[in-house]
Amino acid sequence: MPHPTPPPKMKTGIPEFDLILQGGLPVGRLHLLEGEPGTGKTTIALQLLLQGRADGRRGLYVTLSEDADELKASAASHGWSFDGIGIFDLIPLEAQTGRQQSILFPSEIELGETMRLIIERIEAEDPELVVIDSLSELRLLAQDRLSYRRQILVLKQFLQGRRCTTLVLDDLTDREGVKDLHSLMHGVVTLQQMERSYGAARRRLRIAKIRGAEYQSGWHDFAITTGNVLVFPSLIAEQHKADFEPSLAQSGLQELDSLMGGGLARGTVTMLLGPSGVGKSSIALQYVMAAVNRGEHAAYFSFDEGFATLTQRSSALGMDTERAVRDKRLGWTRANPSRLSPGEFVWQVRREVEDRKARIVVIDSLNSYLSTMPEESALVLQMHELLTYLNNQGVVTLLILAQQGIIGDIQNPVDLSFMSDTVVLLRFFEAAGEVRKAISVVKKRTGVHELSIREFRLFPDGMQVGPRLMDFRGILTGVPEYDGSAEPLLREQRGTDTQSG
């Protein structure tokens, strides 16, 4: 016996939402969009109607909560128009004073009569796409749940008989009643808004079910901006594998590349670990600008500093990052965690890699990313998935993690070394009456590396990595013991030593 052919799908007007739905909403079916007030149900429904109009489908918006003027004002705030889309309002009489198209006061009629009016209007306009806003108003008219369920079943059969795609909205005022309706729906989409202790609220959605169709499960962050609903599909790293040539990305500084065993392997993660101001960001910039000079695209995501600070600091090291950004060879993003959701951040990284072909990505710093979104419970897991994705794409990833303390007892705020293929440790140490910097590689999975500890300094014309510090013991403690000559130290002073994180 042949399998029934699945129904075709229609686009929602939100490309990334269609990606999660793997093509869109099944045509000719009844779908539920549920969420508390303010989660974005009406905006998503409007996007669906606008896409339907663009595709040549007749649309009808049936509203029991907002009148036509309110709906048009909501659409106008996004720059949208209801031209060519029908509106049928069944709202209280006193809310429509002076309007002849006012019909009934819902609390004075029975649910069956309201359903009859909706069906008659649908028969008269013969739409291919209907939005009903909202089921909570219809539920108030029902004397009991059984009669309410029966009326919704009648409406479903009527709409499916006309091959009409229908989206019904519900604000979850009666959660038990909503659960009863899930079995009648072909698809169920749940919206959620999460308030933070500080910053913008985070919105997310999930597909609870779509009968007979594949979709991407789990929660997906989304945002509503003027004129757009932006959905950020959750990342599944194993679905994004690319062929790339194994090679080493070099820094353009011979001594640093020697310390790293020739360079950083493509498709690996390097963590730059050390106290604030020791030079982690400057080393990351060294690799970024070397990639740019090779003709590759690089991406820098900063949670800590603004672009003006970055350009000032890079100029002090002889690096023209401002020109690289202007020439679109370097993608620089100021990430604001109080306004940014984890899903949106991952999507921004993906766009740099997939659209602009970034070969090196810097995240500066993990401390800010993890500490400024304390309400998020799966940030480390999301970061692990992102890093796996970047590895699969052959990207060289640099993570910056600031340790707590300056000299002596230095502690990690969080242990993320398991995510890294290479760990570069930077330290301050005291010698010859000065505070100096040391660099060493303590881990590299993809090849050999130097086991030595070297001094390095930041000068106006760039970075200098010195010879091995053979005459010192205890450098990584911050207070080394000196038992030799001072020759191994970098003595050449080519300008003011630059302090940088």
UniProtKB/TrEMBL annotation:
Pfam families membership: ATPase
Which residues belong to any copy of the KaiC domain? Answer: 8-245, 247-479
Q: What is this protein called?
A: non-specific serine/threonine protein kinase
CDD domains reported in the protein's UniProt record = KaiC-like_C, KaiC-like_N
Organism for this UniProt entry:
Azospirillum picis
Task: Name the SUPFAM superfamilies for this protein.
Answer: P-loop containing nucleoside triphosphate hydrolases
- Entry EC number(s): 2.7.11.1
Q: Which UniProt keywords apply?
A: Hydrolase, Kinase, Phosphoprotein, Repeat, Transferase
